[in-house]
Structure formats: C-alpha cells, structure tokens
Design goal:
By secondary structure, the chain is α/β, with parallel strands linked by helices. 26% of the residues lie in helices and 18% in strands.
C-alpha cells in the first residue's frame, strides 16, 4: 500500500539549487522513480538564480574579510527559501553541508515519516551564515569529505528517505536486516551458482536449517563489524564479551 492509495499526502522534497536540471536525475529511475511516477513522493527543484540580483541574476559575492572563492548571498537565498516554503510549512529546512551533523539512519527514518523536506544545496565557498540562522536551516552532512555542491548530497538524502516510504520496497522487511538498521553491519549474501571459481556457498546456507542459518548470519554480522568498524563496538560486558552497540548511518 502506498501513500497514493491511502490518500495520504505525498512526501515532498523541495530542492533549492543553482542546478535544477540535476533533479530528479537518478531518483527518476528504479524504486524511487517508480514511486515518483505513482505519486508517492514529489520532487520539486527550484532555481535559486530566479531570485538573483540585477541583469545577470547575481547570487554570490566576495567573502567579508577577504579570502578565496565566493559566498551565496543571504538576501538571495532567503528570498528563494521564502518563495519555496511558507512560514507555517511543517517540513524541516536542511542545508547540505560538510560541517553539518552526520546523516544517520535514525534521522532518515524520522524524515521519511514526516511530510518531506526543504533542501538547500550550497555552492562556492559556502552560504552566508546569517541566512542559516535567519531561516533556521539544519546543516546535514553525508560524510567527512567535500563535494562540489550540495546537489549530490541531496540526492543521497532523498534516496535514503524515499526507499523507506510505505510501499516503495516490495517487502517492508527488506530493510530490516541491512547495515545500520540494527546493532551490526550486514551479513554476507550468496546466490547461484553454488560453486564459482573455486568458491562455494557456505554449506549452512543450503542445509535447510533456518535456526542454524540465523545463527550463522548473526555471527558473520558481528565478525564483519568487529573487523571493519571496531569503533562501533561498545564497552566490554561483565562476561568479557564486547557487545556491539546500536549504530546509525554516517
């Protein structure tokens, strides 16, 4: 069942960008594209430059105090935000920024359960700090690296949210065992052929013992987490084992 079939309002993503042609982009394909066609969610890309100043629709200026690059003007960006979302719009206002709080699976779930998001994509050296405060923008990061602009980060955030909307994934439980949904990274997956280049599917997965399969998957999940993300392992328990704490996507 989808939002469209239940008469619920579609999840709305309004993206403020200097490059509206980047949307929906890859989100117009596969699961998110099918959901978009069904009306489960709405993708609205709005050009910040429509609110630019002068004949050339200028949107940026030199940084106060000097320095390299240019900065998006607060008055231009504020005008774009005000035109895109009314003051009483309940959707959170997000600014994709490498200095923002890391995007987590818990935050994604909260966003997907709401009415959508207004997403600002920065460019140049950054955004005038005053508009961040003046329009209550929540800075969000998709990782500890820098992109050319916020558009790719916005695509990541939207994809993560849309796939969790009711009816988008074929089976609701499809996402339950994924990495960052529980207390560990995901276990390995296999499919046919049974033997490939001298590598065989583990016997436990073909033996039909579902209890043994569940135990193997949990053990593999814990092993992979300890090997690849030891930072996610919690403090030692009284029994001497190190339980893996609840984790969220960075």
């Amino acid at each position: 069942m989808t939002r469209a079939t239940t008469n619920a309002a579609p999840w709305r993503a309004t993206i403020l960008t200097l490059h509206p042609g980047m949307f929906p982009g890859p989100l117009g394909h596969a699961l998110s594209g099918s959901a978009l066609a069904r009306g489960d969610w709405v993708c609205e890309a709005r050009d910040i430059r429509e609110h630019g100043l002068g004949r050339h629709r200028s949107v940026d200026d030199n940084p106060a105090g000097g320095g390299a690059g240019m900065v998006l003007r607060c008055d231009v960006l504020a005008a774009a935000i005000d035109a895109a979302a009314a003051a009483d719009d309940p959707r959170p206002r997000l600014l994709m920024s490498p200095r923002g709080r890391p995007l987590t699976q818990a935050r994604v779930r909260a966003l997907s359960a709401g009415p959508g998001a207004v997403i600002v994509c920065g460019r140049f050296e950054g955004v005038d700090e005053r508009v961040i405060a003046g329009r209550a923008l929540e800075e969000v990061s998709v990782g500890d690296y820098v992109l050319s602009g916020g558009e790719v980060a916005a695509l990541v955030l939207i994809d993560a949210c849309v796939r969790l909307l009711p009816g988008v994934m074929g089976r609701a439980e499809s996402g339950d065992a994924e990495s960052f949904e529980g207390a560990r990274l995901e276990y390995p997956h296999y499919t046919r052929p049974r033997d490939w280049e001298g590598r065989a599917i583990p016997d436990v997965l073909t033996g039909g013992d579902h209890g043994a399969i569940a135990r193997w998957r949990r053990a593999e999940s814990e092993r992979i987490t300890r090997e690849r993300r030891p930072d996610l392992i919690g403090p030692e328990s009284p029994e001497g084992t190190a339980p893996i704490r609840e984790i969220e996507r960075r």
